[in-house]
Write a structure and sequence with these properties.
This protein has 165 residues and is mainly alpha-helical. The protein has helices spanning 16-34, 80-100, 102-119, 124-129, 132-141, 143-153.
């Protein structure tokens, strides 16, 4: 039996993949055309119609206003609790930093310090103003962990490893 090719009788055969793409395009075209409108041609008002908005702000109470004479700790000060938390966070990561190498380790160290600063009332400003507070805090709280971090990151002090502060 002799088979004629589709091209021989004037027809062009499309691969099934092309047919699927063509069917998808026709479907999308139909959907887009259907989004043209619902026959409602009323103009949209240029400005909203009348309405009112009421906003009430309560006056501050004495509890909302800080007492300037109160003995409030300096929010930019690293408390012993905050320093202990930094030590715990560094202790948990120093092994990873050793394995990652000093370049990647330093990036991770910076992330840890930023994370710690945010968790402790936004100490980022304090660290930005004086990066040595990280060294001071860790010398007081965990000199052993500090030394491990210095060794892992090949630093003379922790402040030297901080970037972006």
């Amino acid at each position: 039996m002799h088979h004629r090719s589709p091209e021989a009788d004037g027809r062009t055969r499309l691969p099934s993949r092309s047919l699927a793409v063509l069917a998808g395009l026709v479907t999308v075209g139909s959907l887009v055309a259907g989004c043209g409108g619902d026959g409602n041609t009323d103009p949209v008002p240029a400005t909203p119609t009348e309405g009112t908005i009421s906003l009430t702000i309560a006056a501050p109470t004495s509890a909302d206003v800080p007492d300037p004479n109160a003995d409030v700790p300096n929010p930019d000060e690293v408390t012993p609790e905050a320093a202990a938390q930094l030590c715990d966070m560094m202790r948990a990561e120093v092994g990873n930093w050793s394995e990652e190498g000093e370049i990647v380790g330093r990036v991770s160290f910076n992330g840890t310090v930023h994370n710690w600063a945010v968790r402790n009332g936004g100490l980022n400003d304090a660290v930005l103003a004086d990066q040595s507070i990280i060294d001071t805090a860790t010398i007081q709280q965990c000199p052993d962990v500090r030394q491990q971090v210095l060794d892992a990151l090949n630093l003379d002090d922790l402040a030297a490893g901080l970037a972006g502060f």
